[in-house]
Every structure is written in C-alpha cells, then in structure tokens.
Amino acid sequence: MVKKTKAEDAAVSPRAVAGCCSMESVVSVDDRGQMVLPKEIREKAGIKPGDKIAIVSWEKDGKICCISLLKADDFKGMVRDMLGPMMKDMASE
C-alpha cells in the first residue's frame, strides 16, 4: 500500500475536505441590489421560475459574515424535522 504525502492530501478537492460546502460561483450585485444565479447553479439545485428561496445569515461581531440560500420548501422541511420532535416532547409534559 502506498502512503500519501501531505502534499497529495492537500490536492483533494475542497468539497471532499469540507464535507458539503464549496464555492460554486461569484456573482455581482447591481445598483438595485439584484443578482443573477448562474444557470448551471439553478439547474444543479433544481431551482425553477417561481420557486421561493430562503436567505439564512450568520452574524459575527454584530455583522453578517455568511449568507446562504436554500429552497424555501427544503428549509421548511429542515425546520419541521428539527422542531417537530421537540414540540411533541413539550406537548406531552
């Protein structure tokens, strides 16, 4: 078995190292605050005209440092899956 060097490990894709996240694209914001999601990203994410997108942000030191976009239906499902069991536990007490 051949042992990998640290340099070879560093050549692994960022997505494999981070687990789930990668930078897909860079977009510009126009004067009206609008931006366009590239077609390849929309297709990969299954985003269709009329879909609702939830904007989720994280703050650090009083400033927003990260912004994520999620399909609203997916976000709703994640929240329901997280809070549903807790609500059942609270209701039974």
Report what the structure shows.
There is one protein chain. By secondary structure, this protein is α+β, with helices and mostly antiparallel strands. The chain has one domain: Pemi-like Protein 1, Chain: D (Ribbon). It has four helices and two strands; from the N terminus they run H-H-H-E-E-H. It has a two-stranded antiparallel ribbon. A hairpin with a 2-residue loop joins strand 1 and strand 2 (63-71). The radius of gyration is 19 Å and the shape is extended. The mean pLDDT is 80.
Task: Name the features.
about 20% strand; alpha+beta; about 90 residues; single chain; Pemi-like Protein 1, Chain: D
What secondary-structure arrangement, pairings included, does this model have?
Layout: H1 6-10, H2 14-18, H3 39-45, E1 53-60, E2 63-71, H4 72-92
Antiparallel strand pairs: 1-2
In short:
The chain has 4 helices and 2 strands. By secondary structure, it is an alpha+beta fold.
Radius of gyration: 19 Å
* CATH topology (fold) name: Pemi-like Protein 1, Chain: D
What is the CA–CA distance across the termini?
A: 57 Å
> Based on helices, strands and strand pairing, what is the structural class?
alpha+beta
Strand order of the largest sheet: 1-2
